[in-house]
Amino acid sequence: MTDLEFYSIDEYRKVLINMDVYATQLSPGIFSCQQRQFELPKVIISDKFINTSVQFHARITEDCFYIVIPYKGATGLLVNGKGFLANQPLVFKQGQEILTRIPKHYPKYYVVIISSEELASYYGSENLSILKEVLDYQYFDSQGFSSNINTLNNLSHTIDSLLNNRHILNYQSVIDAQETIIHLLCDLLSLSSTNLTISSIRKPRQFEIVSRALNYMHKTNDFKMTIPELAKASFCCVRTLEYSFKQIIGMTPKQYIITRRLQQIHITLKEDKTKTIAELTKSYGIVNQGRFAQDYFKFFNEYPSDTKKQSQVVDYSGQ
Cα(281)–Cα(284) distance, rounded to whole angstroms? Predict the structure, then answer.
């Protein structure tokens, strides 16, 4: 069992590096994330709460199913530019690219991770192949897995109970709970009770454009790029790029670049004690120092100079 707490987006992002996940804080405020994770013999379960709005850009690299279960009554979760109803599970498989935006102060949500091999032993290999094919086509373009609410509630309750009582449960109780979770998952993913169908649906063009843009930004790490340059790298015009970003992420590409740049400068100010603020902002292509300081304060509730002072810890060990 692992209990984790993070109090900055850069600290949280370091944990995600090995998972091929890139996180960007979208709303101002002091970032805070609390997560409980329990690794069972056959599944991994966890719950997570993040207090600021965060954009996740990820690709499932392992041959597993990653199931997100929103907390009861929770709304506002945006996946690949599509909103989801409360209590609707989100199912991802290996190779799927995901752009998930969690709104500010979103209630906690549960995650279940199970390997394809393990799920196949309960769900059936043939059914699993069909499920993977369905997930290849639907791309969250329409509502899917609008399943039995009782099944979903029972699954959430079992996960929550296991996380809350992990210290007092014996081994057999944990194994029994694990079996319950897997059987509920099979009911939840039943192809006969879902409205997902294999069709000719393709990824929305806006999603493909934003995905190319984000991959390019993460690969080049160029914070001086212009919007026309980003549009060219995304194989579209500026107008289409801006429309796509608004549809998928909820902000313009310029706003997204500014947000990423603010976070990177914040990280560098805390870690690099050699550069002055003026040198650092110049290296990131910032011209208007006054405007930058105002934007920085709105986002982090402190000025760049405050961050710089906090990082300059005097070492008295030699005195």
Answer: 5
- The whole-angstrom separation of Cα 44 and Cα 1 is 10
Q: Name residue 112's beta-bridge partners.
A: 45, 67
More confident residue, 20 or 146: 20
- Distance CA(244)–CA(200), nearest Å, equals 22
* Residue among 171, 127, 177 nearest 156 (CA): 177
Query: Residue 195: what pLDDT?
Result: 52
Residue 63 φ/ψ, nearest 5 degrees: -80, 80
CATH numbers and ranges of domains, the chain:
2-193 (2.60.120.10), 205-310 (1.10.10.60)
Query: 88: which 2 tokens?
Result: 């609707």
- Tokens linked to 286: 């910032």
- Which of 274, 133, 247 shows the shortest CA–CA distance to 191? 133
Beta-carbon neighbour count of residue 267 at 10 Å? 17
pLDDT, one tens digit per residue, over 39-96 is 999 999 999 999 999 999 988 888 999 998 888 767 788 887 777 666 678 888 998 8
Residue 319 confidence (pLDDT): 40
Q: Do 37 and 5 form a contact (C-beta atoms < 8 A)?
A: no
Q: Mean pLDDT across the chain, nearest whole number? A: 85
Residue 243 CA, distance from chain mean position: 22
Closest among 118, 108, 126, 116 to 91, alpha carbons compared: 116
| 268-276 mean pLDDT | 84
Contact 125, 179 (CB under 8 A): no
Alpha carbons 123 and 113: distance in angstroms, whole number:
15
Question: Element (H or E) spanning 110, and its range?
Answer: strand 109-115
pTM given for the model: 0.80
